[in-house]
Amino acid sequence: MVADPSEYRWSSFNSRIDTGDSTGWLDTDPCYLALGSTSQQRSERYKAFVGDAVSQAELSLIREGLQRGQLTGSSGFVDEVERIAGLRIERRGQGRPKASTEK
C-alpha cells in the first residue's frame, strides 16, 4: 500500500511517534505504554519496532508457504509441529512430481 507507514493516511503511526501534544482521540493500549516510561521513550521504541522489517528471504518463504498451503518456520519449529501433530511435514517443490520414465 505504502513504502513507509507515515505515508498511510489512516494509520496511527504518526500519532504514536509524535511526542508533542496528544491528539486526544487515540487510545493508549497497555502494549504501547509498556514500551517506555516517557512519551519520548515510547515514541522512539515504537518507531524502531515498526522499522524492523522482515527480510526479503523471510517474506518469500512466507509467501511460498501461503501459496502452497504449507507450514513455514525454522526446522526446529517444523520438527515440533510434526511431533505434536503426528504428521510428517516437508517442503515440496512447485507442481506435481514428474512421472517416472523408467519401465
Describe the structure.
By secondary structure, this protein is mainly α. The chain has 2 domains: 5-51, no CATH class; 56-85, no CATH class. Helix content is 45%, strand content 0%. It contains 5 helices and no strands. The longest helix is centred in the middle third of the chain and has 13 residues, at 39-51. The radius of gyration is 22 Å and the shape is elongated. The termini are far apart.
Q: Count the helices. How many?
A: 5
Query: N-to-C terminal Cα separation, in Å?
Result: 53 Å
Low-pLDDT parts are none
Please give the domain count. Answer: 2
Q: How many β strands by DSSP?
A: 0
Largest sheet: none
Helix % is 40-55%
Strand content: under 5%
Shape: elongated
Q: Give the helices and strands as they follow along the chain.
A: HHHHH
> By helix and strand content, what is the structural category?
mainly alpha
Q: From the alpha carbons, calculate the radius of gyration and give it in angstroms.
A: 22 Å
